[in-house]
Amino acid sequence: VKRNKATAPTEDSEMPPALRTFLYITAAVTGAVILVVEILGAKMLSPYLGTSHFVWTAQIAVTLVALSVGYYAGGWLVDRSPKLSHLYYAILAAAVYLCATVPMVKPLCLKLMRLPLEWAALLASSFLFLVPLALLAMTGPFLVRMLTQSVKTIGTNMGRLTAISTLGSVAGA
């Protein structure tokens, strides 16, 4: 059976330990970045929209929606094309998007200030952070699929990845 080098091996134990470690590091780093974007996103909006519960609620809501979208999209994509390159392109796209939108924070918020605060915060947070957070959230489903080839180990792998990603979030805080 021919196997594409970018696809997951057929048994959990076939994956080289260095690659497995790299994938766990990916889980930790993306977990950290997600929390950093969530927290710093609200701080980026604060000079223009303030720090009220509307801003924080919008940022948290957008983060949760983005995570849901990313988990779903990541699972869908990895089931159709289990290539690690897709995951790392998504991570790169998230980084590029975030870098490109930083200069847009002030003009966007100034335009949105005409709206009620809750709408301004929700729209600003959605435009600036929904896409990159969704792209980063694709990591979990991708890594579960890439690290697991046996139903017998899916629970262990999912638990380990979730723990590593969450610890990455704590480190990012």
Can you walk through the features of this model?
By secondary structure, this protein is an all-alpha fold. It has one domain (about 15-170). The protein has helices at about 15-50, 55-80, 85-100, 105-110, 115-135, 140-145, 155-170. The longest helix is centred in the N-terminal third of the chain and has 33 residues, at about 15-50. The protein is elongated, with a radius of gyration of 18 Å. The model has no long low-confidence stretch (mean pLDDT about 90).
Key terms:
elongated, Major facilitator superfamily (MFS) profile domain-containing protein, mainly alpha, 173 residues, membrane, transmembrane, 79% helix, transmembrane helix
Blueprint of the fold:
Layout: H1 17-49, H2 53-80, H3 84-101, H4 105-112, H5 117-137, H6 139-147, H7 154-172
What does this entry show, briefly?
This protein has helices at residues 17-49, 53-80, 84-101, 105-112, 117-137, 139-147, 154-172. It is mostly helical. The chain crosses the membrane at residues 22-42, 54-74, 86-105, 117-138.
Major sheet size, sense and barrel closure:
none
The number of distinct β-strands equals 0
- Broad structural category: mainly alpha
Unreliable residue runs: none
Helix content: over 70%
Give the amount of beta strand, in percent: under 5%
Provide a count of the helices. Answer: 7
Order of helices and strands: HHHHHHH
Question: What count of structural domains?
Answer: 1
Straight-line distance between termini: 45 Å
Radius of gyration: 18 Å
Average predicted confidence as pLDDT: 89
Backbone shape? elongated
